[in-house]
């Protein structure tokens, strides 16, 4: 089978400990090769196969463009069409520069054995309903094969809420990924920790109704987050589980890490690290024991993941340093895992005017932008003020962002009621009576006429006006206002109001004396 494949050549810096590349795109090449139908590749609509990380990267790699469709890539949108409501926190201000904030993307990574004994390993950060990122250095003593962790019999990783100490709401991990190029043997033999990041794929998804919210990822490098001063990182606090401390910090790059390099022997190469200075923080217990926690940067009221906590470097003075893995170098790798385990198996509920969604048998409204699993059925109804064209409507997620919908257009905006002090209306729809005082559905026809004691304005007396309700909820013509008869002389009346051959005004009258005898 012929396929199109692409690769990206990065600018790289070679160290004695390995190779580290930046994310700048230098070259893209396209060719054809033969490839079997494997789960490690994305299948284009025309039968071609491409690598997972290049799907929805902003460039068409499938010759038919099926890897960059709006439906498939809607999950990466942020802003007006934001999905999954990522990175939102509830803040509690504690000082001018710092605040505590709930961090609903923080979870605990734990390990259980054949005896169901549970051991805490590290923290993790949610980036998708079934994907968690953490510190890879905590897992080097596990057996690794083809950049996947292989667990011994009876041992499994499990994820839970940071605040859940009952271990009753655990989610099993189905797959664990390390970056391509990780050399486990070299790392162990040299006692050198090369890779400080790991990705967990869960067997089941988090329910965002239960307080879980993913942190945002700047998938396309659009927001220049490195120059943002407001950052959020997780701390341990007995009263505010799960909590984060939020504060302003100066522009951060890896130059500070370079100065600290002699103290960072356990963190591998320096180029993919972020080091943050903590001044006058005397109680470091709030940070210790939390490797894998996410460093967020605030942008447009949402937190974007910028780093994963590796370690804390102590100083003799009241200056200490937190060391993070800079996630910007791993975004293409994240995208590949995200595409494989989320994008192709889900759909985003589209924003359609007037349409509201719910699961069958539920009254709960699903917001536009909700992530829906493949093969799930969603019921469609119309909001107040909209006409439902079909009695029953539904849509089914087919995967890759594609929907099967039972109706083309379900909800039509209704026209406002016709109410006037000077006009009467007769309405009909498909030749049947319709109440003009209610909202009118499209194609309703309304015929106005002046009420008694009113007359049509000049130029409208002999013109029959007809209004039609359009599909946009607007009547196709403007109404006129009838004029009351008061003050107008009527020459056609014959009610005895003629005096000496002259026409009397209708508002004139006579007064007579009546005598009433009993």
From TrEMBL:
Superkingdom of source: Eukaryota
Key words, A-Z: Disulfide bond
Signal peptide boundaries: none
S-S bridge residues: 44-62
Protein name: Sushi domain-containing protein
CDD domains noted in UniProt: LDLa (cd00112)
